[in-house]
Amino acid sequence: MGTSQESPARKPQPAQSGKAAALPPQLAAVNAAAASFAALTAKLDYLSAPDCEQIRLAYRFADQAHLGQLRNSGEPYITHPIAVAAQCAEWKLDAQALMAALLHDALEDCGVTKTELIQRFGSPVAELVDGLTKLDKLHFNTREESQAESFRKMLLAMARDVRVILIKLADRTHNMRTLSDVPREKWNRIASETLEIYAPIAHRLGLNQTYRELQDLSFRHLRPWRYTTLAKAVSKARGRRRDLLQKVHREVETVFAKAAMPVRIAGREKSLFSIYKKMAVKHLSFAQVTDIYGFRLVVPTITDCYTALGLLHQLYKPLPGRFKDHIAIAKVNGYQSLHTTLVGPSSISVEFQVRTESMNVVAESGVAAHWLYKVNSPQDDSAERLGTKWLQSLLDIQNETRDAAEFWDHVKVDLFPDAVYVFTPRSQIMALPRGATLVDFAYAIHSNVGDHTTAGRINGEVVPLRTELKNGDAVEVETSPTATPNPAWLTFVRTGRARSKIRHHLKSTAHTESRELGAKLLEQALRTEGIEGFAEDDAAYETTWNKLLRFTGNKTRGELLTDIGLGKRIANIVAKRLVHLLGEIGKRPDALLLTRERFTARENTTQGSITLDGSENASVQFAPCCRPVPGDPIVGYLGRGEGLVVHIQHCSVAKKLQHKDSERFINVAWSDEPVRVFETGIVITAKNAKGVLAKVAETLANAEVDIVHIEMGHDAAQDATDLRFIIAVRDRAHLDGAMRNLIRMPTVLRAVRTAEPSAD
Q: Which domains, and CATH codes, for the chain?
């Protein structure tokens, strides 16, 4: 459709030069007739006069836009949009779809803008044309089967309106019909793409007639010699069996006439590609393919289908195992019919398909039967009319909502899993769950890529890592060797792989940090006991370490230090045991160090304490009950398995823990230069007035305070309401300055810090 590789008519050529100048008068007359609107109007009898006039305007616009352009055959280019619209008219699509079919190449090829289309023909038509243009920009560039399946799904998923896919299939069908005019070196690529991508889409949507035609046209251009040979063989077989088939036709007519059952009998012939595929897959010769010819019987009702089956089985013997009931169990694309293979005259096998008229419409037109249904019987809402719950549900949605997007979303539920399909930087197609983000994409490529991701681009634009991916997006991520996973990623990733990899990395990081914290705590505890400079990896103390590990029950030194860092072991107890073991080998505490440490402990100085600057990750937590910030007096509690938890000294939770587990508390102090902001909670009691929240937020923003979370009171009838904020500040002075600004506001009655849960 919109690219020179796909359509057998691309490059604009002046009408007065090239192939156009060489056209004989007779052919020129034929082309002029084909390019006229009259070729299409004969098929528009199901539309209203205003609709036909709108289509006529679209034709004139397209004709003017493509003026001077020729197809490879030498025909005016407008013959292609007319042919596409004619196919859409065969499916009885609405006026908007037919207008989009006429305009489908104008947006990209002729310099027409989407804004111009909206002004002239309305937004719905412009959106259809725009959707077709976007599909055109996708290029299938690999023959891998999995890639073909993903590409098919991407095409379907990108079409927000089912009509986009139908017009696209009509476009591809006409291009395949005229593929012989294209240079032969392009046949293989275009025919392969049609066979692998577009024919399966037609089949999935139930467009069986289009499906068979696309397959045969692809086969004809991919394997010209085999196609010709097989066509001749089928023609000869048709001639030899003509008398037998006519006899079967007469006998079936006679049986149904005696039963007084109305029936429409049509002969059907297996497509050449189906015959070729069956011969190739089952390794059969042409003579061994027995179901080339068959009959289709169309009867009034579903009950008549089963009655007709009984009449056929009385006339001819059925082949065991060749009966299929697709009425009771319909195919996923809505197809319904009874299939049976019978042994006819001269022992030839003949396949019969029995269905109702509505089933026949669905079998040939699939999703397009939706529009056929509306035209033929707009007042008939019965499910039996179409004989399938699947298609009926689509009709119900469309008739109730008239929402094309919702209609197509419902179709897609049955077409493929809920997924999005995106391009990698190497143009490979990757399937991800709907709602997947850039981080999910990074981990889907490789865990190392995900772990070191710093930024990402979608379709060339830099976007946040939490951005959800859409079908057809071209995605790339940027990495840095020093980057590590952010715990916040766990709040928005969708894939299990990303979630598990992030958790694994955070767990490994926490393990490393806990070991470092444990080593620091043990070193501090040993200093208190008068031991300094004791190295854990000193070979001279190997026996001492082994004895200590037997005492604690740990397998390795690293595990012991990690347990200390996580609070599973008390550093002071481990240090006392280690001092005892060192005494056994003659290493005594330093009396001067012991005196100094005990003196500083009595003076309550911070010598030997853990210094905090905010760079600590999983090994140190700031208690959510009091949310300390630099400048607050703090204490550290080694929770069991939680690492170091930092509380404000007067926090009621910390006081309870101190009363119960005093040996688990250690000295902690703030660094002079914290490296990040810290979260804390405040409660603002404000008058219920218009815009009060906006004014409070503006005051906080002016104080350079970041708002992390807001909760508001639900009772609007009160004179005042409580606004609960979690904010991020640099230190206590920064917080105090922001609180003073809040209290000065006329609408603010009170502003206090939530130092602990009970301090509201």
A: 18-222 (1.10.3210.10), 229-375 (3.30.460.10), 421-479 (3.10.20.30), 504-670 (no CATH), 678-753 (3.30.70.260)
